[in-house]
Design brief:
Low-confidence stretches: none
Mean pLDDT: 81
Largest sheet: none
Order of helices and strands: HHHHHHHH
Strand content: under 5%
Radius of gyration: 34 Å
Distance between the termini: 96 Å
Helix content: 55-70%
Amino acid sequence: MAKKTSLPKNKKVAKGSEAAKKPIRRRRRRGNQEYSGVTPLLIMLITGLAFFKVELAMLVGAGMLPTFVMAFTVSGEHKSAKLQCVAFANLTGVLFKFNTVLSQPHLISDILFDPINILVMWGAAVLGHALIYLGPWVAAFFLQAVAQDKLKKLNAQKQGLVELWGHEVLGDKEEQQQQQQAPQSMR
């Protein structure tokens, strides 16, 4: 005996219609997926430098390695902003040896294999990561300090108005009723 499929009672389905067939699974597009233009920009930069001087492309390629790793591994919200922060910080670390390689290209192997130079270039990327993670905390601290300062000023202005015009300025109905009842109870 064949199993009957249950269909809603109010809908009539003819044989061979689409409702009787299995639903087609469609691929869903990923919503809110950010695209970062930093990675193609860096690849074009390295390619352009390779046409000009191969040594400069080697320096930028080796120095910007933390940025390339982050470009392929970063996830979450604000992907492009995080990548830009690290990329620009990393680029500042690479630029300090740029002039040396430009004027003396035969020193590229000495520069790339010197641990201090690699530490400076990759350390600049670490500073970019520190900006990503510590920046919101520092901004929140300053915004909270500014808000509390503004609140103190508003309370001082409020107190000045109360001293000048009395408690009626506040508009608290409960206080006004209490003040009105106090003189009536004295009678």
